[in-house]
Hints:
The protein has helices at residues 2-27, 150-171, 180-195, 203-226, 232-252, and strands at 41-48, 55-63, 72-73, 81-84, 88-92, 99-106, 111-113, 123-130, 135-139. The protein is of the alpha+beta class. It is elongated, with a radius of gyration of 21 Å.
Amino acid sequence: MKNRSIGIRWQPVLWALAVVFFLLLSLTSRPVQADVGPKPEMDFEFEFEDQASDILAGEMYECEQPDCSDAVLLEELGPQGFRCTTITCNSIAYGYADYHKIRITFADGRSLESNIFEKKSFNAEYTVRVTETSLEVKEKWKPFGFCFCGSALLLTLVLETMIGGIYFNLFGLPRALLGWVPLVSLVTLPAVWYAFPLLPLPDFWVTGLSEGFAFSAEAGLLFLAFRGGISLKHIISLSLLMNLISFLAGLAL
C-alpha cells in the first residue's frame, strides 16, 4: 500500500518532467546530445562565393595518408556517419582517422570535393567556403573544443531526474533525496564536457574514459550525499542506469 500511494503522488511529477523534456527537444534548432559524455563530431557551415544552393547529398572520406591516397568513405554504423540538411552537414564517429575530405552535391548541379583537412577539437566546427570549382574547409578555433550548450544541459538534467524519479518510485526510496540527482550532475557535467575532450588521446578512449568517470563520480557523490539513507547497491544501480540511458539518448538525438 505504501508503494502504491507513493506512485500515485509521483505520477504527475514524472508526467510534467516528460512534457518539459520533449518541449525542450522540440525547441532546439538542431539535434542536441542529451548525453553526459561528449562524442567526437564535426559540424560544417557553408558560405557561398556566389549564389547559394541547397545541399542534395554529401560524403565524407577518412584517410590515414596526408595525401588521402587511401581515402575510404566514413562508414554508416549506428549513430556514426555523415549527414546533411539542405544548408549544413554533420558527422559523428566512434573514432576518426588523421585526415579527411568531403564531397557535396548541390541542387544547382555542382558536385565539389574539398581540400584535405584535419581535426583539432574533440567536437570540431568548420567553415566551408563554396567556390565554382571546389570546397575550402577550415576549422574554427574553439578554446575548449566543446560547446556546453544550455539546451543540452537542461535536457541532460531533466532526463536524469526523470530516470531517478522512476527508480525512486519503483523501489520506494526516500523522495527527499531525489533532489541530489540533478545537483550531482551539475558537478560532474562540466568536468566531463570540458576537461576530457582536452586529453591527447584518440576519440574512442576519450569517450570511454569520460563515461567511466561520469558513472563512478556520480555514484561516489551520491553515496556521500545520501549518508546511508540509500544502500550502495541502489546507488551503483541508479548511477549506471542514468548514465546508460543518457548515453543511448545522446546517440539517438
